[in-house]
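User: Fold this one for me? It's Major facilitator superfamily domain containing 4B.
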Amino acid sequence: FLCAVGGMSISVLGPTFEDLALNVKKNISNISYIFIGRAGGYIGGSLIGGVLFDCMNPHLLLGFSMILTALGMYAIPFCKQAALLTAFMVSIGVSMGVLDTGGNVLILNTWGDQAGPHMQALHFSFAAGAFVSPIIAKLVFGSDEKGTQLLDATLPVTKAPAPETAFNLKSSLKSMWAYIVIGSFLFLVSFLFFLLYSRCGTVKDQSHSGSGKQLVAKHHLALVFLLFLFFFAYVGAEVAYGSFIFTFAKDFSHMPEAQAAGLNSLFWGTFAATRGFAIFFATCMYPGTMILLCLLGSTLSSLLLCLFSNHKVALWVCTGVYGASMATTFPSGISWLEQYTTITGHTAAAFVVGAALGEMVLPALVGFLLGRFPNQPLLMYLSLLTSTFTAIIFPVMYKLASAPGSPGRKPRVERQIEADDSEYRRALLDSGGNEEEEEEQEDEADQWNDADFEVIEMDDASPPTDTGGGEALSSEGCSVGGDSPGHKLLLSLDREKSD
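Assistant: Here's what I get for Major facilitator superfamily domain containing 4B.
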């Protein structure tokens, strides 16, 4: 639920981008800065979330963040000024940054080394929401000539608009209902997190060793910085492609609007489906292997998109392959680094900030250049450039993470072998302790048997004799005379033996 609404909130901007421009009476090149505003808020929210996540309940923090996102989604359809639209995009970015940082760290703190499939499931729900969002925006609330009375009430009465402009504004108003639907879903999910807050305790942090000290890699800071750049290029390309493939297909490839929306949904659909399969792949494949496969697929498909961007069949096929190849990179990257070093709230915030910077810079750059160079496949060039960059930087990260003599965490298999070896040694020690206890029990039993024989010998060697009126007993007679010292000794031995 958390990332489903996150994916819907992010991807709805692509199909409705032109409608938002019409709603504020601007050209798409003149409002591309709303990507910068949303990503700037995303950066601030990531930094704030990294700090707040370590000092307050995560479920409560996520619930409040979702309510803030819902309020922003409700307000967007009523924004008629570009500045006001940008302000609400910033607020949505802040809340989404908190959600992204908190969700990833919550998964790692909950499942620890076994978080791979759960991390894939978290990001699968993001892709599922991104897949549904264009359908809601364009296919459910698509352009038609019905239901325009509400728009007619908002049109200025001083000057009648041109028929084409009026029709575009009416279509814009209908697509804005997608924001209302997504905002309502956000409100519903926020109550689930408040319910978790009221029913659950604090999540246990599993990022520490047995001594309570965090385990970090030898080149921890270098790995975090390189993964920061890695996510900058990856997320920027992902958001740019998902946001502008609709516009690219409609304007550059001259597809009908319905087919362009279908192409957008194909990208997010293959993206979501591959992440769904990755939940099962993560149980039997290493994160590094999954990253290598994704890099290979994204580089090859982006190269073909650059070469055959005018061919519709190639556009459909390569878009699907590109979406599938981009699917598991982000969750696999976090799971991969978690094998070598501890990922805290601050570390996760650094990753999300890198992703937010990529989301801010690259889509804004594409949106700006599309209006200047409409006859060039700039979106495909960007995809190839970022795929090549990530394919180069990942081997460098792997070399640093696997450097010899690193005091940080070892890969999961080696840690499991050491854990099994430690458990085996503890079992041997416990077995040795049990043997010592058994030997002590046998020695104690032998001592009690010796005491029994002594008592029996004393009884046999001291027959009772009456030497004078029965007033005196033999000095060795311990079995007669209730108050004699020998009788007390025998009772004491019996009592000790019973104990």
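One thing worth pointing out: The CA atoms of residues 42 and 93 lie 4 Å apart.
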